[in-house]
Amino acid sequence: NAGVTQTPKFQVLKTGQSMTLQCAQDMNHNSMYWYRQDPGMGLRLIYYSASEGTTDKGEVPNGYNVSRLNKREFSLRLESAAPSQTSVYFCASSVASEYEQYFGPGTRLTVT
Amino acid sequence: GNSVTQMEGPVTLSEEAFLTINCTYTATGYPSLFWYVQYPGEGLQLLLKATKADDKGSNKGFEATYRKETTSFHLEKGSVQVSDSAVYFCALSDFGSSNTGKLIFGQGTTLQVKP
Fold this sequence. Notes:
heterodimer; A: 112 residues; mainly beta; seven-stranded mixed beta sheet; 11 strands; B: 115 residues; six-stranded mixed beta sheet; four-stranded antiparallel beta sheet; 12 strands; 0% helix; globular
């Protein structure tokens, strides 16, 4: 039981490049989330998926897109990376929206 | 809107000292409250939670009580260890008008425990 896994762990992009961050959970959770963590700002929600087949914007969705590929997988795509997207990205999942969330180890992204 | 405010860090303590990290919140309705811990280079782990007023969450010697009258959820531990050095996040579940249950986090408090 791996919990929530994320790939890659580290990534460096040049401005304008695109990439997809992958997230998978093996806990049969219905809800999945993408956050970014920046110094002094806690975690901010980018997008979430309350259940398979649905996605919604969070607090800071601009510049990102998501895909809930199936119940296990929830990917985050940066179409044209910008230096402001340099951050640590965390994926999380929960049984349902009202329950505690379980986090992956994070992806550290640098955009130059 | 709903929000969480934590005491600013870093907090530096000697081993076996008493720990308090303050957390207050603003919310409509009756949110659940959480403390998460993040060890260096890792993701967040749920430390404890409380789902209604006067509930006390506890885990690994840490405790926090859901105080609706003071809108607080302060984290305490009687005797900290070096291994407790980490960043601690207070959070509430935000149902709001869309009933998403997403978490709203405080900015985090860094705890450093010295031997």
